[in-house]
Design brief:
Bound molecules: 1,3,4-trihydroxy-5-OXO-cyclohexanecarboxylic acid
Radius of gyration: 14 Å
Mean pLDDT: 97
CATH topology: Rossmann fold
Oligomer: single chain
Distance between the termini: 14 Å
Shape: globular
Helix content: 25-40%
CATH class: Alpha Beta
Strand content: 15-25%
Number of domains: 1
Number of helices: 5
């Protein structure tokens, strides 16, 4: 089963950006981790990153023409204010799972506490670094197998 893993603005800076919050591992490490963990669950992860909101939306729309079992998305700061991204997620026919490396609801800056996409996603996984993605992969695999049976 193919899935999309979509990462938004600044996630390409993993390892360099606020390592005390986001960790020492790089974006390349995250991509490699996701492919391995997805494979263990019988998923083939198409992992992408863009700093541009419209590109993220185009990738979400791609699920209408490409067969995917679901999407994991970490929209970076767009999480907190992008109604365009929210509308795109709401329009999809496939399940979308929200992921964050950090515990957004516990961060010092209060603008991070609210996600405008949370209620149009199946579930949110946050606060566990790369493991947040692994938990979301498991949830997607289990959701997809329930739907298939
Ligand atoms: C993030 C949390 C966001 O608030 C932040 O803007 C990011 C990363 C996370 O993965 O913890 O860029 O989505």
């Amino acid at each position: 089963m193919r899935i999309f893993v979509i990462n938004g603005p600044n996630l390409n800076l993993l390892g360099k950006r606020e390592p005390d919050i986001y960790g020492q591992q790089t974006y390349a490490d995250l991509e490699a981790y996701l492919r391995v963990e997805a494979k263990k669950l019988g998923l083939s992860a198409d992992v992408r990153q863009s700093n541009h909101e419209g590109v993220l939306i185009d990738w979400l729309h791609e699920t209408f023409s490409v067969k995917v079992a679901g999407v994991l998305i970490n929209p970076g700061a767009l999480t907190h204010y992008s109604y365009a991204l929210r509308d795109a997620i709401k329009a999809l026919d496939v399940p979308v799972f929200e992921v964050h490396l950090s515990a957004i609801t516990k961060r010092a800056e209060s603008f991070r506490h609210h996600s405008v996409i949370a209620d149009v996603c199946v579930a949110t996984f946050a606060g566990k670094g790369f493991v947040s993605y692994q938990e979301a992969l498991e949830a997607l695999a289990s959701y997809a197998s329930t739907k298939a049976s």
